[in-house]
Amino acid sequence: MPNVSMTVNGKQVSQEVEGRTLLSAFLREKLDLTGTHIGCDTSQCGACVVHVDGKSVKSCTLLAVQADGASVTTIEGLAQGDDLHPMQAAFRDCHGLQCGFCTPGMVMSAVDLLQHNPDPSDREIREWLEGNICRCTGYHNIVKAVKQAAQSMKGQQAAAAE
Amino acid sequence: MHNFDYHRPSSLDDAVAALGKGEDASLVAGGMTLIPTMKQRLAAPSDLVDLGGIADLVGIKDDGDSVTIGAMTTHAAVAASSAVPPSLAALAGNIGDAQVRNRGTIGGSVANNDPTACYPSACLALGATIVTNAREIPADDFFTGMFETALEESEIIKAVRFPKPEAGNYQKFENPASRYALVGVFVAKTKDGVRVAVTGAGNDGVFRAGDIEQALSANFSPDAVDSSSIPVDSLNGDIHASAEYRQHLIGVMARRAVAAING
Ligand SMILES: Cc1cc2nc3c(=O)[nH]c(=O)nc-3n(C[C@H](O)[C@H](O)[C@H](O)COP(=O)(O)OP(=O)(O)OC[C@H]3O[C@@H](n4cnc5c(N)ncnc54)[C@H](O)[C@@H]3O)c2cc1C
Ligand code: FES
Ligand code: FES
């Protein structure tokens, strides 16, 4: 069996896996990182979104061996101790979730959006989140949360620069 | 998904060798089509040869009159590039969703020739050349039918070269569930005249709409477009849209593309 090594949420991991092991299964079953959800398992819903080398991808449509050597961030890797990431905090403040099933993928996808578009419009947020399906919220509060996170992250950057 | 032996060569030569060795080996690029297909067991290769380790296959090169896009360049990278014609960047930026664009590649899309995929229409309309490890194939000869191409077994796409058009525009009527093209039309003004390619609609996959090209060559205006001469029985009808509706949409999308070019 091939051996894969990668950095997951800052920690080095190395394990033997079958070639067909999906990254989503590797994270959940081998590393017990069950925050990454599996909704459709057919590349449609975005519940499984994680970052691989800084880019958001659907972990159900990537083999673990394809992420060999990569740096992976999951929803568990966003908070700093007890301090939620601004995106997580904004989802909580804005009631951007109900059942929470889609939320890890939504948050990871939205964090990627702000990396290259720190001040997105409503439309840009909705377009970016096309691959993330939520069956509960109707999306309005999700868009609101992403906007609030963008504002608070800008504020943090300004404070850091002072 | 059935198991397979996984290979990650770092050169094209090694990839060709690995492809030849496996009993039923398959290339994998972004995996956005192949992995779902394998999950459904519609494909069960004995060996997967991952092109992701070959650095030469990634990148966009501006050659002056044309631009060459490496096979492993993602849709996101094409969308963000200022070197590629704006019509092509816009097409790439509207494929699937952000996460599909972060993994999916131009080589995988072109090799797969899904009848509802976007890139094949750009290749035909812009008169692209598909560059493989063995030869160069003009787009007009490359797309041979639904999911069929001129690629030989063990032939690997290295890059796609697009001549820069005077102007171009792609209009897609999206299937709202899959975001693939229900009908997509790419209209280009090239040095060889007006070229119009249609995806999502043809029974044999992507095709050029000769009558619309002729009409637009005489009069490049939305009013000149008439899709009614495209035979309905050459078009696809399914639960998403009838062949008649697709015939109608070809005209609508072509008119929108011409209007966008005329500004
Ligand atoms: C939710 C979703 C929505 C999508 N929406 C769209 C859309 O709107 N428009 C659109 O056009 N596409 C869409 N796609 C498809 C997407 O663009 C894929 O990325 C693309 O079709 C395949 O590219 P890939 O790199 O993922 O290839 P893979 O899945 O890795 O490979 C596809 C096939 O091509 C072969 N192959 C790959 N690279 C090469 C090469 N260099 N040489 C020879 N053969 C090769 C493989 O062996 C395989 O048979 C969508 C996909 C998903 C999952
Ligand atoms: S579980 Fe991966 S996209 Fe739905
Ligand atoms: S909160 Fe339930 S699916 Fe989004």
Automatic annotation (TrEMBL), chain A:
SUPFAM superfamilies, per database record: 2Fe-2S ferredoxin-like, CO dehydrogenase ISP C-domain like
Please name the PANTHER family in this protein's record.
OXIDOREDUCTASE WITH IRON-SULFUR SUBUNIT
- Database matches in Pfam families: Fer2, Fer2_2
Query: Per its record, what are the GO molecular function terms?
Result: 2 iron, 2 sulfur cluster binding; metal ion binding; oxidoreductase activity
Question: Could you confirm whether the keyword Iron appears in this record?
Answer: yes
Entry keyword Cytoplasm: no
Coiled coil location = none
Key words, A-Z? 2Fe-2S, Iron, Iron-sulfur, Metal-binding, Oxidoreductase
Q: What is this protein called?
A: (2Fe-2S)-binding protein
What sequence ranges are listed for the domain 2Fe-2S ferredoxin-type?
2-78
Automatic annotation (TrEMBL), chain B:
Which species does this protein come from?
Answer: Marivibrio halodurans
- Could you confirm whether the keyword Oxidoreductase appears in this record? yes
Q: Which residues form the FAD-binding PCMH-type domain?
A: 1-167
Q: Which UniProt keywords apply?
A: FAD, Flavoprotein, Oxidoreductase
TM annotation in the entry: none
Family annotation (Pfam families): FAD_binding_5
What SUPFAM superfamilies does this protein's entry cite?
CO dehydrogenase flavoprotein C-terminal domain-like, FAD-binding/transporter-associated domain-like
Instruction: Name the domain of life this protein comes from.
Output: Bacteria
Q: Name one GO molecular function term.
A: oxidoreductase activity
Signal sequence region: none
Please give the name of this protein.
Xanthine dehydrogenase family protein subunit M
Cross-referenced Gene3D superfamilies, in alphabetical order? 3.30.465.10, CO dehydrogenase flavoprotein, C-terminal domain, Uridine Diphospho-n-acetylenolpyruvylglucosamine Reductase, domain 2
